[in-house]
Specification:
With 72 residues, the chain is α+β, with helices and mostly antiparallel strands. The chain contains three helices and two strands. Helix content is 38%, strand content 17%.
Length: 72
């Protein structure tokens, strides 16, 4: 449990910080589902790009590709 301050801030309890491995400066996300709200660690801003890159790496990262495009 936490108390909302006059600035609408609340302290995240230690048990929650431990479960989410949160530290000072980490970004968090609030997910609203009906009248309930969930809290989770926010994904990095570039998470979608990193996921896309991981799908392309095997296709475009062969030795043949490196040799063929070395002059570019």
């Amino acid at each position: 449990m936490s108390t909302l301050t006059s600035k609408y801030q609340a302290t995240i309890p230690r048990a929650v910080r431990d479960v989410l491995s949160l530290g000072a400066g980490d970004r968090i996300e609030f997910i609203i589902e009906g009248d309930a709200v969930s809290l989770r660690r926010a994904l990095p801003a570039n998470a979608e790009l990193l996921a896309l890159e991981a799908t392309l790496a095997p296709e475009w990262g062969s030795e043949e590709d490196s040799t063929a495009y070395a002059d570019l």
